[in-house]
Specification:
Number of strands: 4
Order of helices and strands: HHHEEEEHHHH
Number of helices: 7
Structural class: alpha+beta
Strand order of the largest sheet: 1-2-3-4
Number of domains: 2
Strand content: 15-25%
Helix content: 25-40%
Bound molecules: zinc ion
Radius of gyration: 31 Å
């Protein structure tokens, strides 16, 4: 007895499961999740990294993601608030040193007019204007926008050149005010 049961065969051949998503699909999906306007980004990334995505599911998902609009770009950096007129400004940095900036409009009076922030290096008569880093730009506008007149005058006082137009200041009163007589008439900070 029992001899019949001893020779039962177990089918240990692995069942062909569904084909899983390829590396290429996964990396394409990741790019789409990051660039498209996906509402639940964390959830999507968790699904992507679950290791359970089949080739067919990945393919369907790619189609869905491609149909989404691109994520809107946040315009927080590389902009200049409207209350800051073109001119030169000094701020005190976190390291307690003065830092000098210029705000200038590129292509004024055209549809391509762009307002930019530049770092001011050098001395009156020999200023050089260089592109700031993103964090320098952000820090500059955050400070200047609180009181543009003050930071313009601070530039004039520290540098000895008009905070508005950059002309060297000669008479003591102008130096004390940080603004030249002509610009002082135009600006009432
Ligand atoms: Zn001036």
């Amino acid at each position: 007895m029992g001899s019949e049961g001893e020779w039962q065969f177990f089918d240990i051949t692995p069942q062909p499961g569904p084909k899983m998503a390829s590396e290429r699909q996964l990396s394409f999906i990741k790019d789409l999740i990051l660039s498209k306007n996906v509402i639940d980004r964390d959830g999507a990334l968790a699904r992507l990294n679950s290791g359970e995505l089949t080739l067919d599911q990945a393919s369907t998902w790619i189609g869905e993601l491609k149909a989404l609009p691109y994520r809107p770009k946040v315009q927080k950096t590389w902009t200049v608030p409207e209350n800051i007129p073109d001119g030169r400004y000094a701020i005190v940095g976190k390291d307690r040193n003065f830092k000098f900036f210029r705000v200038v409009t590129r292509n004024p009076d055209t549809i391509n007019a762009t307002r930019i922030v530049q770092k001011v290096l050098g001395a009156p008569g020999d200023f050089r204007y260089v592109r700031p880093t993103e964090s320098e730009w952000t820090m500059a506008v955050e400070e200047i926008t609180k009181d543009p007149g003050f930071h313009s005058a601070l530039f004039g006082m520290k540098v000895g050149a008009c905070g508005v137009c950059g002309s060297p200041l000669t008479d003591p009163e102008s130096i004390a005010l940080g603004i030249g007589p002509i610009c002082a008439r135009k600006y009432d900070w």
